[in-house]
């Protein structure tokens, strides 16, 4: 199971590094384009990309940490670091949204020139690039079952959305003529709201993971079904699943015939564990408590 954890972390680290490089390039392009093109929406977009770099760096450190094997201080491994990183990414998004909101409101109240047309070309390229990056990262996050990597993917998607809002605002400012210059700043404000919504969508499952909530009821039922398929299992009384990084842990109460020996019960427990891990390799640990048939806690 440790090899599977290492492979998943390696995949996550690869997508994270790619995200850092791409976001760094886009942040510079957007910042320069916003300054030269007189577009605060584009500058705000650059700020959002900068938080991409910071959050991706946090994710890289978190994946490195959560990928370490269990030790005496962390008997279940440091996998919870991954959920903490996801919460950190959400907070970074909220901070960026706050900065954008304050500056957008200031610019709406302060007359300024309309943005230049070439900024639309920059934004079109950014939207396409970020959407491609989102699809690549979310695919990896789903494959390795990583909440933090999925959070990083949505960070890229929020960047694409904010760029789309900036594109619309700048287009209105250019086409509308005098008096429509503030459309650029309203677009930046709208993008900030979208960013906050994405931050919540990222933070909610991560908080649930930290609180050991039952995040996937369907997975719980699947584990019960698999355990029931093993010869000697009379009934699966309880299954509790928690997520630790990219891996899962399960605690189970399994009923067997009360007349079996301890050795026979032990063998059934191992058979249940092996069967579940064969079908669902994302389970690093499965702790099974054997109960005599008909026993009720």
Question: Mind explaining what this structure looks like?
Answer:
- By secondary structure, the protein is mainly alpha-helical.
- The protein is elongated, with a radius of gyration of 25 Å.
- The model has no long low-confidence stretch (mean pLDDT 80).
- The protein is 70% helix and 10% strand.
- Helix 1 (2-36) runs antiparallel to helix 2, helix 1 (2-36) packs antiparallel against helix 4 and helix 2 (40-66) packs parallel to helix 6 (183-210).
- It has helices spanning 2-36, 40-66, 80-109, 118-144, 147-176, 183-210, 217-228, 262-279, and strands spanning 235-244, 247-256, 283-292.
- It has a 3-stranded mixed β-sheet.
- It has 8 helices and 3 strands.
Question: What's the SSE blueprint?
Answer:
Elements lengths: L1 H35 L3 H27 L13 H30 L8 H27 L2 H30 L6 H28 L6 H12 L6 E10 L2 E10 L5 H18 L3 E10 L5
Parallel strand pairs: 2-3
Antiparallel strand pairs: 1-2
Helix pairs in contact: 1-2, 1-4, 2-3, 2-5, 2-6, 3-5, 3-6, 4-5, 5-6, 7-8
Could you write a compact summary of the structure shown?
By secondary structure, the chain is mainly α.
Offer a few descriptive terms.
297 residues; mainly alpha; 3-stranded mixed beta sheet
DSSP summary, beta strand count? 3
Structure classification: mainly alpha
The largest beta-sheet arranges its strands as: 1-2-3
Strand fraction equals 5-15%
The percent range for helix content is 55-70%
Distance separating the two termini: 31 Å
Largest sheet: 3 strands, mixed
> From the alpha-carbon coordinates, what is the Rg to the nearest angstrom?
25 Å
User: Mean pLDDT, rounded to whole units?
Assistant: 80
**Global shape:** elongated
Write the element-wise H/E pattern from the N-terminal end onward: HHHHHHHEEHE
Count of helix runs:
8
Low-confidence stretches: none
């Amino acid at each position: 199971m440790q090899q599977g954890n290492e492979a998943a972390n390696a995949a996550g680290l690869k997508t994270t590094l790619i995200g850092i490089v791409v976001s760094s390039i886009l942040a510079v392009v957007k910042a320069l384009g916003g300054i030269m093109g007189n577009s605060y929406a584009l500058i705000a977009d650059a700020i959002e990309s900068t938080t991409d770099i910071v959050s991706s760096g946090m994710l890289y450190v978190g994946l490195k940490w959560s990928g370490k094997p269990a030790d005496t201080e962390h008997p279940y491994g440091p996998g919870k670091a991954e959920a903490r990183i996801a919460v950190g990414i959400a907070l970074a998004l909220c901070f960026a949204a706050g900065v954008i909101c304050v500056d957008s409101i200031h610019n709406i109240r302060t007359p300024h020139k309309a943005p230049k047309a070439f900024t639309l070309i920059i934004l079109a390229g950014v939207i396409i690039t970020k959407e491609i990056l989102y699809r690549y990262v979310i695919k990896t996050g789903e494959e390795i079952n990583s909440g933090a990597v999925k959070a990083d993917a949505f960070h890229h998607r929020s960047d694409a959305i904010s760029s789309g809002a900036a594109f619309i605002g700048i287009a209105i400012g250019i086409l509308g003529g005098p008096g429509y210059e503030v459309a650029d700043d309203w677009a930046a404000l709208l993008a900030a709201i979208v960013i906050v919504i994405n931050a919540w969508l990222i933070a909610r499952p991560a908080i649930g993971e930290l609180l050991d909530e039952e995040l996937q009821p369907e997975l719980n039922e699947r584990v019960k079904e698999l355990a029931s398929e093993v010869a000697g299992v009379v009934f699966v009384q309880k299954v509790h699943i928690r997520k630790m990084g990219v891996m899962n842990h399960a605690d189970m109460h399994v009923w067997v015939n009360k007349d079996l020996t301890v050795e026979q019960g032990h063998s059934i427990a191992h058979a249940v564990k092996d069967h579940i891990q064969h079908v669902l390799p994302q389970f690093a640990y499965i702790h099974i408590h054997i109960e005599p048939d008909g026993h009720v806690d």
